[in-house]
Design a protein that fits this description.
Layout lengths: L1 H20 L3 E5 L5 E4 L1 H6 L9 H8 E6 L2 E4 L4 E8 L5 E7 L1 H45 L5 H30 L6 E4 H19 L2 E5 L7 E4 L1 H19 L4 E9 L4 E8 L27 H11 L3 E6 L5 E8 L3 H11 L1
Parallel strand pairs: 8-10
Antiparallel strand pairs: 1-2, 1-6, 3-4, 4-5, 5-6, 7-9, 10-11, 11-13, 12-13
Helix pairs in contact: 4-5, 5-8, 6-7, 7-8
Length: 346
């Protein structure tokens, strides 16, 4: 018994030394939620830590917020990862690791990525603007010359305005893309979004003699959390894109379906145009990627940005009509969540 006792004391000493030397903070909490033991690293993270004190009080005094499950932000700005294990009806043990440096490094890397992306986009935008701007400058110079008849003056003026409008479209879509999700969210009904989108583009649909097929009856009670104008703009952009490629007398089909099992709705927009080359599908939502001579390459990028900000997804593929197909999936709101969101917005 003396030997066993000596061995246990030796083991306890070893565990004590190990506990003191650990770089991670370790806190033992008994079944009464009171601090039973802790190491120096825990004292550095939790200045209010004391033997016998309730852990809930220590946490309240030290932790500013739980940013995600198992991740805390302390009052002094540090970030920690927390894991805990039960101790066979003798309480629990907390293992707290300071990950502040990793967070700062990650933020620095993300910032560098954002700066790199901004630089690339600025270069692409400058390249895109240069062509219509050069055209506008050329025809403005022609207009400045004397001896032009009325026909030539009208021709040069139209070319000048076309170049300036193209430049304006580039800048507008670039601003829409850069704004991303900077919009307010409310509970909105999807049929209202679709009707708003089609109302703005109705004159062009009529002008081209397009046949528009709409089947959204199952969405009559479906609501999502989002921004009506932003989503309507995205849907309008997809229909406008279909008209650009399918041309006059096109057939465009819009179908909405509810998926109760996944609490989501699926909206498909497809046309009978020439369709999409499978080789471009991986890049179709990339900013400034376009297959049209006067395309901005930002329309579909803006659509994807809006859908992602609504916690949804969008995929492109082949349509059963023979053209292109875009499928948008968005999460729906429960009636309770919809009422709560409306109350907060009011």
């Amino acid at each position: 018994r003396l030997n066993e006792r000596a061995q246990k004391e030796h083991l306890a000493d070893q565990l004590g030394v190990l506990l003191e030397a650990l770089p991670a903070a370790v806190v033992l909490i008994d079944v009464r939620d009171r601090v039973d033991r802790f190491n120096p690293a825990a004292e550095q993270l939790f200045p209010h830590l004391a033997w016998g004190r309730r852990w809930a009080e220590v946490q309240q005094d030290t932790v500013a917020a739980e940013t995600s499950p198992g991740t805390w932000r302390l009052n002094d700005g540090r970030r920690v990862n927390v894991s805990q294990r039960p101790l066979q009806d003798r309480g629990r043990i907390l293992d707290v690791v300071d990950v502040t440096d990793q967070y700062r490094l990650q933020e620095r890397v993300e910032r560098q990525d954002r700066l790199g992306a901004m630089g690339e986009m600025a270069a692409q935008l400058a390249h895109q603007i240069r062509t219509p701007l050069s055209t506008a400058v050329l025809y403005a110079g022609q207009l400045a010359k004397g001896g032009l008849n009325e026909g030539q003056r009208c021709q040069f003026s139209d070319k000048l305005l076309a170049g300036l409008r193209h430049t304006e479209t580039l800048v507008r879509e670039m601003l829409a893309f850069s704004r991303g999700g900077n919009f307010s969210s409310t509970a909105i009904a999807l049929p209202g979004v679709i009707h708003t989108a089609l109302a703005g583009i109705a004159p062009r649909i009529s002008q081209l003699g397009a046949d528009l097929l709409i089947d959204i009856e199952t969405l009559s009670n479906a609501q999502i959390r989002g921004n009506l104008d932003a989503l309507a703009g995205a849907i309008s952009n997809l229909v406008d894109n279909a008209l650009d490629h399918a041309g006059a007398n096109a057939t465009i089909q819009i179908v909405g379906q509810c998926q109760p099992a996944s609490d989501a709705v699926v909206l498909t927009i497809e046309d009978d145009g020439p369709g999409l080359d499978p080789s471009i599908l991986p890049r179709i939502f990339d900013p400034f990627f376009t297959t049209r001579e006067r395309g901005t390459g930002l329309g579909l990028a803006v659509v994807q940005a809006v859908v992602l900000e609504h916690d949804g997804s969008i995929v492109a593929g082949a349509s059963s009509l023979g053209g292109a197909r875009f499928e948008i999936q968005l999460p729906t709101l429960t009636p309770a969540a919809s009422t709560s969101l409306d109350a907060r917005s009011n």
